[in-house]
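TEACHING EXERCISE
Course module: macromolecular assemblies
Task: Read the component lines below, then compare them to the predicted structure of the full complex.
Student: A.B.
Group: 4
Components provided:
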Amino acid sequence: MTASGDRDGRAVSVGGRTARNNRLIGAGAAAFAVGMIGLTYAAAPFYSAFCRATGYEGTPQRVETNRDAEGGRVLRVGFDANIAPGLDWRLEPEVESVRLRTGKTTTVYFRVRNLSDKPTEGHATFNVTPEVSGQYFNKISCFCFTTQHLGPHESAEWPVVFFLDPALEKDPSMARVDSITLSYTMFAPPEEKPVVGRSTNRAGPAG
Amino acid sequence: MASVTDLTHHDVDHDHGHGHEHPIPSGWRRYLYSTNHKDIGTLYLVFAIIAGLIGALLSIMIRAELMSPGVQVFPWISEMMTGDGSADAAKNMYNVFFSSHAIIMIFFMVMPAMMGGFGNWMVPLMIGAPDMAFPRLNNMSFWLLVASFLLLMCSLFAEGSPGMRGFGGGWVLYPPMSAQVGTPGPAADFVILSMHLAGASSILGSINFIATIFNMRAPGMTMFRMPLFPWSVMFTAFLLLLSLPVLAGALTMLLTDRNFHTTFFDPAGGGDPILFQHLFWFFAHPEVYILIIPGFGMISQVVATFSKKPIFGYVGMVYAMMAICFLGFAVWAHHMFTTGLSLNTQRYFVFATMVIAVPTGVKVFSWLATMWGGSISLKAPMIWAIGFVFVFTVGGVTGVVLANAAIDRYLHDTYYVVAHFHYVMSLGAVFSIFAGFYYWFPKITGYMYDERLAKWHFWVSFVGINLAFFPQHFLGFQGMPRRVVDYTEAYAFWNMVSSIGAFIGGAGAIIFLYVLYEAFKAKRPAPANPWGPGATTLEWQVPSPAPFHTWETPPHIVDEDHHAPAVAGHGSLA
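Instructor-supplied answer key:
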């Protein structure tokens, strides 16, 4: 190792192999840090896919058809609907709750009305609580799968077709769960969001 | 001692041979342009002391407010800072204060003191390197941190929540509080950018440490002959390198959510605020080990020195630190037991968290075994180190309690958690910093501090901080939530006790300042090795204060015993 000062004699710089190795290790470590930032961004779609696949965080499952036989347990399924600020709609479930046998497919209607004078779009986010029931809550069809469009003062009835997977009977996490709540919040498309801070009404709990 | 003189003389000769006759730059240039690891280390230490005093002042204000039920102190503080003394402004200012207190103590006090200060000063000295691997990068790391601190100070005076000043969402920065919904004003952006710069500073610093420790060791200084402090800095550097980019990424997502209509954490666009918590704690759990592992290293040096014995179970200590680092990345969701994890997920995180008690226990018992049968001299650094072992064990035990998901349901976000992490951080990490500070003070400044005053500093701090935080366990069990400005009458007694303890702890900080003042005034010259035969590491073989350039001719380490490295041809002080 040779030691030599730079022009003003302040820095101790090292030459030859040590300097080369320093640069290699430094570049490797820097690349590692950049890679970690990349992985962080990769976490966002991964997390979303993970929630959809496992029902984590109360994410209901989306299925084509109900192939399960009817099970033995009966649970209460409650409904909750919210409109986020910036969307002048009204959304409410036709019934507050249903009692449902596991494995049995049921249909519930939500009444919606556009209160404004212009056609608007809305998109619903959804989840269920308790969160552990997400993996057993199977939706066959739902208005939340696509963006919805309503003309001025138009109203509609939207169906949600779902069933509870009888496999929940074998899950000890579900043993003491008698009631599941399915919650929706409708949002306006992003560009129609109001300047936040001025809005007085706040979104209800999304889940 | 003769060998030390020979050695330095040799160094000086060498300097002249290679054109080091330039005078050391003086005045502000010496520090602003500095690329010398010792000067940068000194800058970091001064910065940490200033930031620590500001952070301590904030905590004293918080304790003054919590001394009795009702909101008494903060209307006055808010009136003074913003001109608005209303109850809402006072409550907001309280939130701003505890948020800033945490950010300052973590990013601008403990991290700069341990890694920037002691790491910069002592790692090159202890491994026989002439400087850090990238001296200019080192300078950049420090000044980025200053810029970061200024941004945080800006956030205190910028608008946060509508009509309010500062960001009051806690150091965890959870959306939606930190998103447009909770804090539409720029105060949150200032905090995010401040964290970005602090993160960049620490990432650059950790790259520097990794290159230095891997590549700049003196001949014969194999990895397993390194003292434990450089080991601890190396592990911490890896933790930083792995975890801080995750924070940087998460904060960038938050920043674009706030300003550029992305929806990473906004359910309106399919995002999820819980994702932020996962990313944040994937960073922040390793972060708490970042705050304590260099302390482990310092405590190991101090305990071995003042017991006049090599550290017990050196290899085990290294692997224990390594195990803590690995496990630190696998337990993040124990901060999120109440966010709806499935039972099996909770079981895993409970188990993984409890496993950390094993390597931590290895460390605590190794320190005790080092002291066992040693010839202990109770100098100030050793007293701080023994105090550290005590308070860290208390904090560790409450950590095992909190690791249980079932108990955490009850204690989550209560003062029990506040007591727990202050025992490992405010007492543990800070005690290890003071142990290291008194241990290396003679080497850094060339002066001896006053032993009697330093012991006063310890006892006043020890009594004060324990009195402040131990009653908070009771408050937590009684259900007092954290982050509240007001509380019911039922919590009044222990809050009063806690506040009195905090004021005594504040008196300890004033004694510390007096210790510094007295040492620089009295100018008692320190010998190269003031601690006697127990101090065997390389930094004690150069004079005190350590000269501007050291180890330009690398020492040759020949001794097989890792803790008493001898320099070939010069002999060992031990």
